[in-house]
Amino acid sequence: MSAREWRIEVMHGVNLDQLGRRDPALYGTLTLAQLERRIEADARELGLATRFFHTNHEGEFVERLHALRDHADAILLNPGAWTHYAWAIRDALEIAALPALEIHLSDVESREPWRRTSVIRELCFATVSGRGPDGYGEALALLREALERTDRGSGSSAPAAGAHAVRRGRA
Ligand code: DQA
């Protein structure tokens, strides 16, 4: 168990409040509330504290990122379709300057070509996609590992940017 309880901000973007109504073959059957409960339980097992945020409004997502500095140690974010084009979110993530992990329920690489673009990927130390709700547990474990590494190690504020890890496909 970690000596400190890391605080993870779990951020869901546009249309993710519609989980449960969206194509279950891509997104599963859990509602966002059910998914959040599951993430919270996974995080608790890892000794991580979670705080959840969802909005369908890009400006609110940006403002939440602006306000994170003193409230979170790392960000787990699934911006939904904003991932693929919302440069303002990319810039706000840069301003937040916290270790970040990009996550998608579906395997964005194997869907329409426009979903292969991610404007946030270069600012995230890892991407987990296509592993459904299980991917969040995996992402939390990666976040904890990264936070512990940077805590023990170099004093740098974020995991090495060059070491971007990608986990794809069904577990
Ligand atoms: C998503 C993938 C996006 O391409 C899509 O627009 C979403 C959800 C996912 O979790 O698989 O809304 O981020």
Secondary structure layout:
Layout lengths: L6 E8 L9 H4 L4 H14 L3 E6 L3 H9 L7 E7 L6 H10 L3 E5 L21 E4 L4 H19 L12 E4 L3
Parallel strand pairs: 1-2, 1-3, 3-4, 4-5, 5-6
Helix pairs in contact: 3-4
The structure holds 1,3,4-trihydroxy-5-OXO-cyclohexanecarboxylic acid.
The site of 1,3,4-trihydroxy-5-OXO-cyclohexanecarboxylic acid has 10 residues, from strand 3.
Tell me the series of helices and strands, N- to C-terminal. EHHEHEHEEHE
Structural class: alpha/beta
Runs with pLDDT <50, length 5+? none
This entry's quaternary arrangement is: single chain
* CATH topological fold name: Rossmann fold
Number of helices: 5
How many beta-strand runs? 6
Number of domains: 1
